[in-house]
Specification:
Layout (H helix, E strand, L loop, with lengths): L1 H19 L2 H17 L7 H12 L4 H12 L9 E8 L5 E8 L2 H14 L3 E2 L9 E10 L5 H11 L3 E4 L3 E6 L4 H10 L4 E10 L3 E2 L2 H15 L4 E6 L1 E2 L2 H7 L1
Parallel strand pairs: 8-10
Antiparallel strand pairs: 1-2, 1-3, 2-9, 4-6, 4-7, 5-6
Helix pairs in contact: 2-3, 2-4, 6-7, 8-9
Length: about 250
């Protein structure tokens, strides 16, 4: 699971730049629109919308933008375009698994753009289901390890419903089933635990270790996929060595 931790850290560091050019807010709004469209505007009954709104708040998206996106999803606001959910799968450098989730108004355009990134980076798209079995949906809550009693935190998290707790060099990662994510997060906050990030995401069941050259190649490849306008999330089971992360940053 450390692969998830390292790639997530890279994406969080990149998030500030994304927000400046509006790309991150656009992707967050799309998630809210689709969630509201399928489950309604009530965050108490619409779990997917609740998560989308929380993620938007975690990334400092203005409340007006959030409310406007919800109204678009429920048909109260400007109709706009119809967004379709689609998933792409393939293999990256070193045989790593790549799982991509997209929201698009034109599947032909999106698949063409995704395939082009794969080809230009010496990688291959695969058939549906070729790598999705490697990933499972999990709630992931990251807490800064400094000034935190890891054992005490682990006991608190497990009592609140967490499945597993991993201690990394600079953070503690808490894993939950999707349905236990909110209760675990709430329990931590009520105990004054400062949460660095929290999301329901796709976590790999196994990792593929990469050498420094392949790791940097993979990081560049993933970033190019993330930069595509229609791509919402990119997941991998690559395990990046610390030297590659340092050089990439």
């Amino acid at each position: 699971m450390s692969g998830h931790s390292k790639w997530s850290t890279i994406k969080r560091q990149k998030g500030a730049a994304d927000a400046k050019r509006g790309q991150l807010f656009t992707k967050l709004a799309r998630e809210i629109i689709v969630a509201a469209k399928h489950g309604g505007s009530d965050t108490d009954t619409n779990f997917r919308l609740r998560l989308a709104v929380q993620r938007a708040r975690d990334n400092n998206m203005p409340l007006d933008n959030i409310e406007r996106a919800i109204k678009r999803g429920t048909g109260e606001g400007h109709e706009g375009v119809i967004l379709l959910e689609t998933t792409y799968e393939g293999y990256g450098p070193g045989g790593t698994a790549i799982l991509i989730q997209a929201l698009t108004d034109n599947k032909n355009r999106t698949v063409s753009e995704v395939r082009n990134v794969f080809v230009r980076n010496g990688s291959n798209m695969g058939d549906a289901g070729c790598v999705s079995w490697i990933f499972e949906s999990k709630g992931v809550i990251s807490v800064e390890a400094e000034n935190v009693d890891s054992e005490e935190l682990a006991l608190l998290a497990i009592d609140a419903g967490a499945d597993d707790v991993k201690v990394e060099d600079s953070s503690v990662e808490i894993y939950t089933a999707p349905e236990d994510f909110e209760s675990t997060r709430k329990a931590l906050e009520e105990n004054n635990v400062k949460i660095d990030s929290a999301e329901v995401t796709m976590v790999p069941k196994n990792l593929v270790a990469l050498d420094e050259k392949k790791a940097i190649q993979t990081l560049k490849f993933l970033e190019k996929l993330e930069d595509l306008d229609d791509i919402q999330h990119v997941y991998t089971n690559a395990d990046f060595p610390d030297e590659a992360l340092a050089n990439y940053e």
